[in-house]
Specification:
Helices cover 8% and strands 44% of the residues. It is mainly β and 263 residues long. It has two domains: 143 residues, Jelly Rolls (Sandwich); 113 residues, Ribbon (Cystine Knot Cytokines, subunit B), CATH 2.10.90.10. The longest helix is centred in the middle third of the chain and has 9 residues. One of its GO terms (molecular function) is cytokine activity.
């Protein structure tokens, strides 16, 4: 079996208000994850160039009894550099907390992020009603097991292809967006696009011998034979910045070659 990553994005569907901060609650699927990040819009801050601002991440826990308030368990404290008087998105890792939510759904009571500016006001947008287009979002990389053949080269009939195969096959092709200067893409940074390559013999190209023989008879007047190309393509979920520097989540069609064939 082989490990295959499936990336998804979740927006907070419900906001509650504690005594001092907004609670961000994200619906989670059950499963094992490899990565998790919270994306937050930080408001413009008037501060000296190079100044750092503290970000605090809290996990919300149930109260000890009904008469108590919810508990805020601090998970991390860090500093973030912000440009003077300019809003921006930040991407912060929250793996431990989200991994617990994914395996123990009852523990998913939300999270709290506190990040304050020089005037002690919250500068991280944690409430979608405040700025709907800049609402926080959670990026999660799930781990799924699939047949190893899904990641290896595959022939048109679904069989495995060796690296020395000369007939039409699907071969793995990793694409790194960062290397091609696609900096506007937030996730994934790398994905497996795959490609088709190889020769197309007539008997190999057709599923039925009759069709292969008919094509062979008419091949004398043909300028070229069948070519190896994509037969089935799959979409890719992407997280990216649009022209207004707003984060968007979309599904882009025909980004991954699933099967190849001789046509």
């Amino acid at each position: 079996m082989n490990i295959v990553g499936v990336r998804c994005v979740s927006y907070p569907f419900d906001f509650q208000h504690s005594n001092t901060s907004d609670i961000m609650y994200f619906k989670m699927s059950h499963g094992e994850i490899s990565q998790a990040f919270i994306h937050l819009w930080i408001k413009p801050v008037r501060s000296a160039p190079g100044s750092k601002h503290v970000i605090e991440i809290y996990k919300v826990s149930a109260p000890v009894d009904k008469n108590n308030y919810i508990r805020m368990n601090m998970l991390s404290v860090d500093t973030v550099n912000l440009e003077h008087n300019k809003g921006s998105w930040i991407r912060y890792p929250v793996f431990a907390m989200v991994a617990d939510w994914a395996t123990n759904p009852d523990n998913n009571l939300g999270m709290i992020v506190i990040m304050k500016g020089p005037d002690d006001n919250q500068i991280a947008v944690t409430n979608s009603k405040e700025e709907p287009e800049k609402a926080p979002l959670l990026e999660v990389q799930f781990i799924h097991e699939s047949d190893k053949a899904n990641r290896l080269a595959r022939s048109p009939d679904g069989g495995k292809c060796s690296l020395t195969e000369t007939r039409c096959c699907r071969f793995p092709l990793p694409v790194n967006f960062t290397e091609h200067n696609f900096d506007f893409i937030v996730a994934p940074k790398v994905y497996m696009a795959n490609f088709c390559n190889g020769t197309c013999d007539y008997l190999y190209a057709q599923q039925h011998i009759h069709m292969a023989m008919v094509q062979k008879i008419h091949s004398g007047t043909a300028t070229h034979g069948p070519c190896c190309g994509a037969k089935e393509l799959m979409p890719l979920n992407m997280l990216y910045y649009d022209h207004d520097r707003k984060i968007r989540f979309d599904t882009i069609n025909d980004m991954i070659i699933e099967k190849c064939s001789c046509d």
